[in-house]
Design a protein that fits this description.
Elements lengths: L1 H20 L6 E5 L8 E7 L2 E6 L6 E5 L6 E7 L8 E6 L2 E6 L10 E7 L5 E3 L2 E6 L7 E6 L6 E5 L5 E5 L8 E3 L1 E6 L5 E4 L5 E5 L3 E6 L5 E6 L6 E6 L5 E5 L5 E5 L3 H7 L54 H26 L1
Parallel strand pairs: 5-9, 10-14
Antiparallel strand pairs: 1-22, 2-3, 3-4, 4-5, 6-7, 7-8, 8-10, 11-12, 12-13, 13-15, 16-17, 17-18, 18-19, 20-21, 21-22
Length: about 350
C-alpha cells in the first residue's frame, strides 16, 4: 500500500506543481484549435506554414496539421499499430515530423519508440518509419522531443520533479536497440521544448515557465514566464524565432509568447552566423536523425558512469528551483506519515 501511495505521489506531484505555478498573463491568441478531435495538445511544431500537434496518451497513432489562419485541421496523418503514450513531436524536415511515444509515468517501459511520419494539407494513412530507444541506467518518463535544425539530430528531455536530463538519440538509427546518452541538465517537469533557428539555443518549458539554454553547452541564457493556460504543455518556435505555446483541452488557443528583449537578442541569428533555415530542414535527415557530426557536451557531462547510470543524474540538484526540493520532500513526508500510522495499527 505504501509503495502505491508513494508512486501516486510521484505521478501527481508534477501536476500539483503546475496548478500552483500556473500564473501569468493571458497571452496573445494566434488561433484556436477548431477540430473537436484535438483535445489534449501535448506537443507543437511550426512547420511549412502550418502547426502540427497530437493528442496526449490514450489516442491512436495520428497527428494533426492545422492552418493558423482559421484554426481548422487541413490534414491528419494516421498509422496502424498501437502506441503506448505519445507525448512529443519535433520537425523532421521534408514535410515530416518526429513523433515520440515516450511517455512513461510509472517508469516501467523497457524501451520507447520514435516515429517519423509525413504531414501536410491532406489526410493519409501511412506505414511509418520507427525505432526503439533506450535510456542509460533504466527507464525515464518524458514529454519533450526536439530536433537540432543544424544536424537534424533528435533529443529527448526527461520529466521529473528531481530535475530533467537531456538525452541525445544516436545519429544513425538502427533496426534494433538505439541507446541514448545523457548530455546535460534541463528544467524539471519538462513538458515540451524546441530549438531556435540558429541551432545554438533551445527552449524547454514546464507548466508555468520556460528556460532558454545555449547549445550544446546547455548554459542557462534566461527564464521567462508563460501565459496562464488550462494545462500548458506544447511549445514551438517558427523560422523567424517566434515562440508559441499550446494547452490541453478542447478548442484551446495557441498563444504567441513575447520573449524578453535580452533573450530575443541572444536567440536572433546574426548576419553571417547561425542558421535561419526551417527547423529540421536539413537534407541529411533522410539517413536518420543526423548525417553530420553530433554535438558533444561541453558542460562536463559524459555518456554515463561505470554502472550504466548517466553521470548527469549525480547533479540533479544543481540550479533547481525551490519547488524541486519542496515537492519531493512533501511526498516523502506523506509516505512517512502513512508508514508510521500503519506501524501503529499493526502494534495494536
Amino acid at each position: 500500500m505504501i509503495g502505491r501511495l508513494a508512486l501516486a505521489g510521484v505521478v501527481v506531484a508534477p501536476f500539483a506543481v503546475g496548478i500552483v505555478l500556473a500564473r501569468g498573463d493571458a497571452g496573445n491568441v494566434e488561433f484556436r484549435f477548431e477540430d473537436p478531435q484535438i483535445v489534449e495538445s501535448s506537443g507543437l511544431v511550426a512547420q511549412d506554414g502550418l502547426f502540427v500537434t497530437m493528442n496526449d496518451s490514450g489516442d491512436s497513432g495520428r497527428v494533426f496539421a492545422v492552418d493558423p489562419l482559421d484554426g481548422e485541421t487541413v490534414g491528419v496523418t494516421r498509422w496502424d499499430g498501437g502506441v503506448t503514450d505519445v507525448e512529443g513531436i519535433a520537425p523532421a524536415g521534408d514535410g515530416r515530423v518526429w513523433v515520440g511515444d515516450i511517455g512513461d509515468n510509472k517508469q516501467s517501459r523497457g524501451s520507447v519508440r520514435l516515429f517519423r511520419v509525413p504531414v501536410g494539407a491532406e489526410d493519409r494513412t501511412v506505414a511509418p518509419e520507427w525505432w526503439e530507444l533506450t535510456y542509460p541506467g533504466g527507464s525515464r518518463d518524458a514529454e519533450t522531443l526536439m530536433s537540432d535544425p543544424s544536424t537534424g539530430r533528435v533529443y529527448i528531455a526527461s520529466k521529473s520533479v528531481f530535475g530533467g536530463t537531456l538525452y541525445a538519440v544516436p545519429p544513425d538509427l538502427a533496426s534494433g536497440d538505439n541507446r541514448m546518452r545523457a548530455v546535460g541538465h534541463v528544467i524539471a517537469v519538462a513538458t515540451d521544448g524546441a530549438f531556435f533557428p540558429d541551432g545554438r539555443h533551445l527552449v524547454v518549458r514546464d507548466y508555468a515557465r520556460a528556460v532558454v539554454y545555449s547549445f550544446p553547452g546547455l548554459e542557462e541564457a534566461g527564464t521567462f514566464r508563460l501565459p496562464k493556460q488550462r494545462q500548458g504543455e506544447g511549445i514551438a518556435v517558427d523560422t523567424s524565432g517566434s515562440v508559441f505555446v499550446s494547452s490541453e483541452g478542447q478548442h484551446t488557443g495557441v498563444l504567441r509568447v513575447s520573449l524578453p528583449s535580452e533573450l530575443r537578442r541572444i536567440v536572433t541569428p546574426r548576419s553571417g552566423s547561425g542558421s535561419s533555415a526551417s527547423p529540421g530542414s536539413s537534407s541529411s535527415d533522410a539517413a536518420g536523425p543526423s548525417a553530420g557530426p553530433s554535438a558533444g557536451p561541453s558542460n562536463g557531462v559524459t555518456d554515463g558512469s561505470a554502472d550504466g547510470s548517466p553521470a548527469a543524474e549525480s547533479w540533479i540538484w544543481q540550479g533547481r528551483p525551490w519547488w524541486a526540493y519542496a515537492v519531493p520532500g512533501w511526498v516523502g513526508l506523506m509516505v512517512l506519515v502513512v508508514f508510521v500510522r500503519l506501524v501503529r495499527r499493526l502494534r495494536r
